[in-house]
Amino acid sequence: MDAMTSRTLPDDSHRIDVEAVNTPAARKLYKKRVQIYPKLVHGRFRAIKWAAMTVLLGIYYLTPWIRWDRPGAAPDQAVLVDFEGRRFYFFFIELWPQEVYYITGLLILAALGLFLVTALFGRVWCGYACPQTVWTDLYIHVERLIEGDRSARIRLDKAPWTLGKAARKLAKHGLWLLIAAATGGAWVFYFGDAPTLFREIFTGQASPTIYLFVGVFTFTTYTLAGAMREQVCTYMCPWPRIQAALIDNDALSVTYRADRGEPRGAHKKGTSWEGRGDCIDCNQCVAACPQGIDIRMGDQLECINCALCIDACDAVMRRIDRPIGLIAYDSPANVARRRRGERPKVRLVRPRTILYAVLLVAVAALMLTQLVNRQLLSLDVVRDRSPPFVRLADGSVRNNYLIKVINMAPAARTLALRVEGAPHADLASFAHETRDGAILVSARADAVTTLRVHVTAQRGAAAGPRDIAFVLRDPQTGEAIAESPSVFVGGGP
What we know:
Distance between the termini: 100 Å
Number of strands: 17
Structural class: alpha+beta
Number of domains: 2
Number of helices: 16
Mean pLDDT: 88
Low-confidence stretches: 1-16
Oligomer: single chain
Radius of gyration: 33 Å
Strand content: 15-25%
């Protein structure tokens, strides 16, 4: 292979055959999936993944069953998206449709948090907390329990079909389907009372929409976690492409320390390590990788930073009595420093991490301030536009208004509605009591109270449009609680 048909990587550890890459087979638009058989490894990162999977799955499956006392007819559920009642409940927080900006704020916080974590530790989200990773890890665990570890699964797939093989495959896919169905069922429980929906689903009383969504989530969970797995991360997810813009040379990620590992090669016990690297080319890092990649090839799009290759390599290093950390969380900057003979550094505080942290704290503080000062009672006024006004027999002018009193508190209140900015104008409502020029409004708990009111101005005082305001006051203290501006339209002299 001459210089025209090969390219050498910076560490001179691999050579890529360009002629092989340019063959018609290599230029196909779609590549057939190669089955990956991840090997079970033990170590600190595998333990972290077990803990993350257990906690995250527990939160997902159990949260809809947490009870919380709610007033009125709302289900006693701690976390609930109630489309019928147009509410979002999160423990003691109750959000109304007009407060959707809180959801927007949470999404911004999630994005900034993801940016910060990525700038610090690379794609650690993908390796530990992404739903695709969590459910795929669960499916692989089930597969391993039924079919055995890597070598046993490879042998089973290569073996001819027998009753034993069919039974194992059926058991595996049956458990996968049960997990997928539980996943779809848990999802719909967030949108209705969980015990009620559970009973209705299993007694055939649930609506077709419920069964449709359970079916959709069952299918997608089974397909993505059972059949597609690493292809979702490589071909469907945009995050591997985006995260490159969020990291720099000081971002920590799973790294093969080529300066220590090369030149690699097989090693016999008792022979000298002089003139060679610590990597014995055992490929245990590749066998442990759920993405099927070789971390020794450098940074790759497919790597999700799960660090299982670190556990696999550390176990080998201990067996051959070499220092652990041949594969470790490291940064490209440290790789370059070691090559120059300099001491490596961990730089977590950098301009971009400071920026992400400041933005994260600022948005969180803004949302917290807004939540603490949240008004639980508001007023909405809509003036009738057809007709714009009515002239009465005595020459006075009347405007009609639709008033909505939005009481987001769990207790009912009695309030006094007044109109201000319109002297010599009377406020009245046919369906509500009027006292001292104010309408007494009984605002129902956690509901919208609607009433129609009329503002009548005497002849001569009604000329031209006039800015007015409807004000809700405490009938005992006179304190203004809510206010909404509007306009009074007169009919001239």
